[in-house]
Design a protein that fits this description.
single chain; 326 residues; alpha/beta; Aldehyde Dehydrogenase, Chain A, domain 1; seven-stranded mixed beta sheet; three-stranded mixed beta sheet; 11 helices; 36% helix; globular
């Protein structure tokens, strides 16, 4: 993800200061070592590890930095807008959180295929993914059959040591985040959602920050588990009866990063995909696109630019008019 920003920024002729997340700094430092080995001139690509409220704020407020591109939570993204307003009005590009819907209409393709994609969308990387498909919005006529397939598939996803090749779901990244995820699970139970699977901390004897894959059924879109980004292995299943209801539920969120849609009808796919307010809509699969397609969101998922594709280069350039009288 860092390379999504570093590549276009350098290609456009800029120098770059990269501040990685404080919990995941080593890969960025290694990238800087490789850049130096490759002959990139000193000072062109710089990595500054540190905490957000020190190193991050220094970047956001520095008068000699012309532009800041941020990937992270919507909460922190707001700080960069504040830093820009209170300093040199630097351009800010935000790629923030999500509460991505997976909409399964009454005529889905093969339900086994839908289940595979739905599970991957919800639980890949422990759900610690901004485009995580954490809301499964499914037509009542197929909900039972689909949920049975999802539950069967989830039982094959081993929770455990991330260094074990058999593991599909590792721990939460730190103790405070574990507590946050468990807090949302408790809130879902208190709100009356039915726990179809999981719902607890697990592997306590290891001392690790492990959470069971958790599926809530009969969720209302007004519940916190359906509205707020959990960033953990928690899926909310929300039933609907009509296409109009499905679109309304999908769009009833502060976020708009990604979405998935399942239907056999190509005309329906075009119509509903256009109606869902999200930067990327995948049809009959879970996908964030690839390096050739722009990635970014609507609403509180971010604005003002896109990562990946040729469009990513534009956000690291400035337009200039030169008028010459001959």
């Amino acid at each position: 993800m860092a390379a999504w920003k570093i590549g276009p920024a350098l290609a456009a002729g800029n120098s770059v200061v990269l501040k990685p997340a404080e919990l995941t700094s080593l890969s960025a430092i290694r990238m800087a070592e490789l850049a130096a080995d490759a002959g990139l001139p000193p000072g062109v690509f710089n990595v500054v590890p540190g905490l957000g409220d020190t190193a991050g704020q220094a970047i956001g407020r520095h008068p000699d930095i012309d532009m800041a591109a941020f990937t992270g939570s919507t909460e922190v993204g707001r700080y960069f807008l504040k830093y820009s307003a209170e300093s040199n009005l630097k351009r800010v590009i935000l790629e923030c959180g999500g509460k991505s819907p997976q909409v399964v209409l009454a005529d889905p393709p093969d339900l086994d295929l839908v289940a595979q994609n739905a599970v991957n969308a919800a639980f890949w990387n422990m759900g610690e993914n901004c485009s995580c498909g954490s809301r499964l919005i499914v037509h009542r006529s197929v909900k039972g059959a689909l949920l049975a397939r999802i539950e069967k598939l989830v039982r094959t996803w081993t929770v455990g040591d991330p260094q074990d090749p058999a593991t599909r779901v590792g721990p939460m990244i730190e103790k405070p985040h574990l507590d946050k995820v468990l807090g949302y699970i408790a809130a879902g139970k208190s709100a009356g959602a039915r726990v179809a699977m999981g719902g607890n901390r697990t592997l306590l004897e290891t001392g690790g920050h492990f959470v069971e894959i958790t599926i809530f059924d009969e969720v209302s879109n007004t519940m916190s588990i359906a509205r707020e980004e959990i960033f953990g292995p928690v899926l909310s299943v929300i039933p609907f009866d009509t296409e109009e209801q499905a679109i309304a539920i999908a769009n009833d969120t502060n976020y708009g990063l990604a979405a998935s849609l399942y239907t056999k009808d190509l005309n329906t796919a075009h119509r509903v995909a256009r109606a869902i307010r999200a930067g990327t809509v995948s049809v009959n699969c879970f996908s964030e696109g690839d390096m050739t397609t722009p990635f970014g969101g609507y609403k509180e998922s971010g604005f003002a630019g896109r990562d990946k594709s040729v469009y990513a280069h534009e956000q690291y350039t400035e337009l200039k008019t030169i008028w010459i009288q001959l």
